[in-house]
């Protein structure tokens, strides 16, 4: 496993609780294909953005240490799933032991926003609200001119479904960090969501190239 997989993101703040053991939390990314799940994770972990779309096949996995405001660290195990319909049957197996489910929609796609209900339903078939924190991310806010889903609509849906809410853009590091740090702080404030088991997986690097290109900032 490479260094980058355990790179540390330091949130400025106090340095208390340094001796607390590092807990691992499984964070599963779900949402329609092309909404930017992979791009959000890549920006957070590797500080890169690729405008060329390569659909995730099956699942990809990366781990990163995050230092919380209070000073202690937690490890986020980021599970990047494939949004394509043909992989939907695999979702329940990824949900097992998850602490957080992040559902991503694209603010320029009403269809991806409407699909959020289906993803939440699927999560709640396997995981109870006592077991997982649900987060909703409206991505691609850099494409403001093409926006089809307003911030207020995203917020209202998140309130209705009892989810954390963020708007982000995979090409804006500060917005991406706000998502992951918000999730990390949410986990730290929620002692029920803990998975101590070390999960060692071989990352799936098989991706399907697509010739579709999308504009970006
Ligand atoms: N303009 C813009 N483009 C983005 C953003 N996030 C992702 N994209 C682009 O949208 C396309 C799809 O992004 P991905 O991250 O591969 O989407 P995904 O949700 O992982 O897709 P699947 O793996 O098929 O489920 C790519 O061309 C990205 O470059 C964003 O915030 N802004
Ligand atoms: Mg992907």
UniProtKB/TrEMBL annotation:
InterPro entries: P-loop_NTPase, Rab, Small_GTP-bd, Small_GTPase. GO terms for molecular function: GTP binding; GTPase activity. Residues 208-217 have a biased composition (Basic residues). Keywords: GTP-binding, Nucleotide-binding. SUPFAM superfamilies: P-loop containing nucleoside triphosphate hydrolases. The keyword Cell inner membrane does not apply. Residues 194-217 are annotated as: Disordered. PANTHER family: RAS-RELATED PROTEIN RAB. This is Uncharacterized protein. It comes from Cladocopium goreaui.
């Amino acid at each position: 496993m490479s260094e980058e997989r355990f790179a540390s993101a330091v949130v400025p703040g106090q340095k208390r609780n340094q001796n607390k053991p590092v807990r691992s939390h499984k964070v599963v990314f779900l949402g329609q294909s092309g909404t930017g799940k992979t791009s959000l994770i890549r920006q957070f972990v590797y500080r890169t953005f690729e405008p060329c779309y390569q659909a995730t096949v099956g699942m990809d996995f990366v781990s990163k240490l995050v230092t919380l405001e209070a000073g202690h660290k937690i490890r986020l195990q980021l599970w990047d799933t494939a949004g394509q319909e043909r992989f939907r049957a695999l979702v329940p197996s990824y949900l097992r032991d998850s602490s957080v489910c992040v559902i991503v929609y694209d603010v320029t796609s009403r269809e991806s926003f409407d699909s959020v209900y289906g993803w939440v339903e699927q999560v709640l078939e396997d995981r109870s609200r006592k077991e997982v924190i649900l987060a909703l991310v409206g991505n691609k806010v850099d494409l403001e001119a093409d926006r089809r889903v307003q911030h207020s609509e995203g917020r209202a849906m998140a309130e209705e479904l009892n989810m954390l809410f963020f708007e982000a853009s995979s090409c804006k590091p500060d917005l991406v960090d706000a998502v992951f740090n918000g999730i990390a702080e949410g986990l730290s404030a929620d002692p029920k969501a803990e998975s101590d088991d070390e999960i060692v997986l071989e990352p799936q690097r098989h991706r399907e190239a697509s010739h579709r290109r999308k504009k970006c900032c």
